[in-house]
Amino acid sequence: MSEPILRVQDIRKSFDGSGVLRGVSLEIREGEVVVIVGPSGCGKSTLLRCINGLETIDSGEIRLHNEVISGRKKDLHLVRQKIGMVFQSYDLFPHMKVMDNLLLGPVRALGRPREEVEKEALQMLDRVGLREKADVYPRTLSGGQKQRVALVRAMLMNPELLLLDEITAALDPEMVSEVLNVVIDLARGGMTMAIVTHEMRFAEAVADRILFLEDGVILEESDPETFFHSPKTERAARFLQSFTYASRRDGAEKQSKNNPQG
Amino acid sequence: MDWSFIGAHVPDYLEGAWVTLRFGLYGVLCSLAVGVLCCLVRYFRIPVLRQVAAGYVELARNTPLLVQLFFLYAGLPRVGIRLSAEACAVIGLTFLGGGYMAEAFRSGLDAVDRSQAEAGACIGLTPAQNIRYVIFPQALATAVPAVFANVIFLIKETSVFSVLAMMDLMNVADTLRTGGGRTVEVLFMLAAAYLLILLPVSVAATLVERRLRYAGFGDSRPV
Q1: Which chain B residues have any C-beta within 8 angstroms of a chain A C-beta?
Q2: What are the mean pLDDT values of chain A's consecutive 10-residue runs (262 residues total)?
Q3: Chain B residue numbers touching A154 (CB-CB < 8 A)
Q4: CATH code of the domain in which A195 resides
Q5: The complex's ipTM?
Q6: Chain B residue nearest residue A155, CA to CA
């Protein structure tokens, strides 16, 4: 088996004395898609934010290709050039046109020639169906379009690892799939990703491995088939249950069976 | 109104205006630099310097320019530092203006969502690049009205330079008034001179604000 790209070792993080991450370890291998699910406030987002240094960790260690990246203050930007991240709130730069949003990182941070990146950017915009939007300002885009641009912006850095933090949580339902299809496309292309999401069907479709996080610890780790159809822990089963609803008519049928006369 | 008197003294006023404009401009430019520096120190939360900057801003904004100039011109020589009137004028105006500019920029920076800085960091920008390309352009769009208000305020404040015996507009007018006694004409020309200097600044402010709004966020563009 290949060496893990990312190795997170027993990291802990607390905010104001309350432990948000209480000893989390995980490994991600090249080309692997790991989806992290769990109830709100379980530490999923914090985990992602710790990985690329947006939050400092209290203890433990994070390694990218065997190089320790946690606890660094200097050169954090070099680490982040290899770990892309996309947020719930898109965070496109409102004062720049879509194309300039895309070019900023590769041209300024990586020092790549503008024309070369521009070509690549147009190709990728084309792939996500937004080629004609290169010259507009972000505010004229819909949420789903913004998020696709944000994905392209992260991908243009050629990251070794992409972190997606609830990227569809702020979207109208009909825009969710246009964004998630892009992610699935990336996964097919072999992109290594750690994804936090509440879209369970998407998680099942895209994941190689599911991590179930609760109260700052990983309670369960399994392949999607196992996790979604026969979870090992009772807590995970209960969590999954909260995404399904008993149909009103099911209930009525049962009732009429119980009372045949009725 | 004695128009021949006015005509005869236009050259005096031009000279005065040149002094006002030149030293006002030096002061404004230095104030901008000091203001940017101060707000960067506070934005990056640099220890010690940050408290110094905060103290400076309060001191600059809550003492009159006249007092600051007296301190530079009459106070410093007591401890052996002798500066020319011009140097005192520029330093004084910079001291005052730096505080105001720092506050204007800070209000701009505060208006930029912190998540923008995170997004910039996530595409691998260094903190300096992040400020330059992501944060500052957005902050500036918000700060520009306040910055221009400060520019106008500072140029008007140069009228205090006359206490340093500099022949700025105010002093030219004062000299003419006490010499010839044509108070109405003298003050009329004085007001007109300030107006002629500051009106273009006001117009420029409006244009720049509008331009930044367009380029900045792509909205409010007339369809």
Answers
A1: 113, 115-116, 118-127, 129, 133-134, 137-138, 141, 215-219
A2: 87 91 95 94 92 94 93 88 95 94 96 96 96 94 96 97 94 92 95 95 94 94 94 92 78 52 44
A3: 122-123
A4: 3.40.50.300
A5: 0.87
A6: B123
